[in-house]
Amino acid sequence: MLVVVSYDVSTLSSKGRKRLRRIAKHCLDYGQRVQNSVFECNVDPTQWEIFKNKLLNEMNKKEDSLRFYYLGKNWNNRVEHIGIKPSIDMEGLLVI
């Protein structure tokens, strides 16, 4: 299933900047960055629960916000991209 994760983390303190880096790292572990604070994550239900819990444990609910958009399995017809930063085919062949 495709989940779009967006976040807004307060960076007024050094703790906030640290949270921002850790949240971004968790998002990179599970998806691809499509905007500065927006990630597309193609995960199965088990991966999603683990990933979501990591994010919730990192955030400060009084200073930060997380948003999750559940696009499901048939997301190809729901995502349109125009402009720079071509998107990566998450279902395609991965060459390292």
Radius of gyration: 14 Å
CATH C-level label: Alpha Beta
H/E order of the elements?
EHEEHE
**Mean pLDDT over the full residue set:** 87
Helix-strand makeup class: alpha+beta
How far apart the termini lie comes to: 24 Å
Number of helices: 2
Main sheet: which strands, in order across? 2-3-1-4
In short:
With 96 residues, the chain is α+β, with helices and mostly antiparallel strands. The chain is built from 2 helices and 4 strands; from the N terminus they run βαββαβ. The protein has a 4-stranded antiparallel β-sheet with strand order 2-3-1-4, with helices on one face.
Mind explaining what this structure looks like?
The chain contains two helices and four strands. The model has no long low-confidence stretch (mean pLDDT 87). It has a single domain, classed as Alpha-Beta Plaits (2-Layer Sandwich). The chain has helices spanning 14-30, 45-58; strands at 2-8, 32-35, 38-42, 65-72. A hairpin with a 2-residue loop joins strand 2 (32-35) and strand 3. The protein is α+β, with helices and mostly antiparallel strands and 96 residues long. Strands 2-3-1-4 form a four-stranded antiparallel beta sheet, with helices on one face. It starts with a strand and ends in a 24-residue tail after the last strand.
